[in-house]
Amino acid sequence: MTQQQQHQGRLAFIGGGNMAEAILGGLLACGYPLSQCVVSEPIQARCEFLQSKYPGLQTLSGPDANRLAIQGSKSTTTTQSLIQDGSIQVNPTAASIDFAPAEVVILAVKPQVLRSVVVDLAPVLRALQPLVISIAAGIETSAIARFMADGVDEDAIAAGSVKLPPVIRVMPNTPALVLEGAAGMYATADATAEHREVAESLLAAVSKQVSWVETESLIDTVTGISGSGPAYFFLMMEAMEEAGVKLGMDRATAKALTIQTCLGAAKMAQLSSDDLETLRIKVTSPQGTTDAAIKAFEAGGFRDLVQKGVTAADARSRTLAKELGGAKL
């Protein structure tokens, strides 16, 4: 992705954990202006780490940091007093506290605290109407909308006299940390084509595959396939490495061969015009070594186990949505 193809508006990251850092780092690597990014993170040590890794990055911490990151700031007496009484900490301390309101807010906090964070930010979100992108697992857009509507009469929202910001829900995965992620995305009805383009350009900085789903329940399926998927491959590789060790190979060699085999197979699948079944058949000579292994896997119920695993992850994602999001609007 080129810098020209990328959204260049003001970004506010609410939460500065690993996934937020992955997105931030990917964007910066693609030429996104550092001056257009601000990270609100409650743990001061984490702010200091981000500062050391991305010199000049504006980070905020403290009770009022999330709100300030979204609404922007000027060097006013009010802002200075918030700094003096500890309500916000600005990093680096010499940085200007003049910055524009956020056009895009990326909610990158843990699902368990998303409700309290969004309820606290609801008035400023309703006032400024930024695009809200949530990467919090298991929280449906209807729940986020309800959090943003906190304290507002439902009739006012239904009548359109109070407007809620558009929300795009994203399920990334951990390979985003090495810029090889896959992400599923769902947009609410009020998200425009431009909103979708902005969100896609941001996630594409760390995700080689970005796929939209038109039914939000399919985000749970995305979770089962790509969100949790890296762990499935780690388990397979772990088992292959262990099998090699039990057959007499040293662990380092078994691990190296397993990892490269995984990478090579994925690259072949990515570049080939053949479907996955055809690729498997092509490397499975009848009565050969691969054929023996495949038959052993099939006899052990390999496909059924994979189906059960993906289905279990999908079901757990739906359960988390109920537990953490509560009743729908």
TrEMBL record:
Domain annotation Pyrroline-5-carboxylate reductase catalytic N-terminal: ranges:
10-138
Taxonomically, the superkingdom here is Eukaryota
State whether keyword NADP applies.
yes
Q: Which InterPro entries match?
A: 6-PGluconate_DH-like_C_sf, NAD(P)-bd_dom_sf, P5C_Rdtase_cat_N, P5CR_dimer, Pyrroline-COOH_reductase
Q: Which Pfam families does the annotation name?
A: F420_oxidored, P5CR_dimer
Domain named Pyrroline-5-carboxylate reductase dimerisation: which ranges? 216-320
PANTHER family associated with the record: PYRROLINE-5-CARBOXYLATE REDUCTASE (PTHR11645), PYRROLINE-5-CARBOXYLATE REDUCTASE 3 (PTHR11645:SF0)
Identify its protein family. Belongs to the pyrroline-5-carboxylate reductase family.
Q: What's the protein here called?
A: Pyrroline-5-carboxylate reductase
Query: Lineage of the source organism?
Result: Eukaryota, Fungi, Fungi incertae sedis, Mucoromycota, Mortierellomycotina
